[in-house]
Amino acid sequence: MRAAARLALIVASTALPLLASAQTQTVSALPVFNFPQSGVTFQTGDTWSANGQTFRLYGVQSCIRGTFFTNSAKVRTDCGEASVAYLAAIVRDAKPRCTAIARAGAPPVIFSVCAVHIGRNTLDLGTVLITQGFAFAATDAAGKATKFEYAVAEREASKAKRGLWAAADLPHPSKILIEAARGARPR
């Protein structure tokens, strides 16, 4: 065996156990938790707090509070409040189970994905909110959806005019947020 090959084997045999050990020490299980059924404050239709901790559904954007649409009864209604009411109703009825996937910001927000049980089906909470037309696919600053499947669900809800999509004057939150970001940038 050549000296270089022997050296490579020696380095690999000592480095691989160290790498494996480092991975098991740094990789931890993602926390899974039941959505609290009491003591919850719904901040928006995608964000809530409980026990001093803020949580947000990953990839979901609710309507923004203080933006308005005209409902089917021809009443001008706060779009953000409609999103909050729908999320609260789903949580009450379907009792989601969530998985934390990331922590960001200060104070920290825990981004989560949640599953709900409707009948015999287990469904993604974000997909339910979006397909029913009470939430939207979150986008980045360029307007690209952060979760492709949510963009597909949003497109279907829009075509079917479900939920908030039935309003001709729906204030789409991603458009509002992108415009606000463009206005905040120095020109």
Describe the structure.
The protein is globular and about 45 Å long. The chain is α+β, with helices and mostly antiparallel strands and 187 residues long. The N terminus is likely disordered.
Distance between the termini: 64 Å
**SSE class:** alpha+beta
Number of domains: 1
* Silhouette: globular
Q: Cα-atom Rg, whole angstroms?
A: 22 Å
Q: Describe the main β-sheet briefly.
A: 7 strands, mixed
CATH structural architecture: Beta Barrel
- The number of helical segments is 5
SSE succession: HEEEEEEEHEEEHEHH
Write the topology of this structure.
Elements: H1 3-26, E1 32-34, E2 40-42, E3 47-50, E4 53-57, E5 60-61, E6 68-70, E7 76-78, H2 79-94, E8 97-104, E9 109-118, E10 121-124, H3 125-131, E11 136-137, H4 148-160, H5 173-184
Parallel strand pairs: 4-9
Antiparallel strand pairs: 1-8, 2-3, 3-4, 5-11, 6-7, 8-9, 9-10
Helix pairs in contact: 3-4
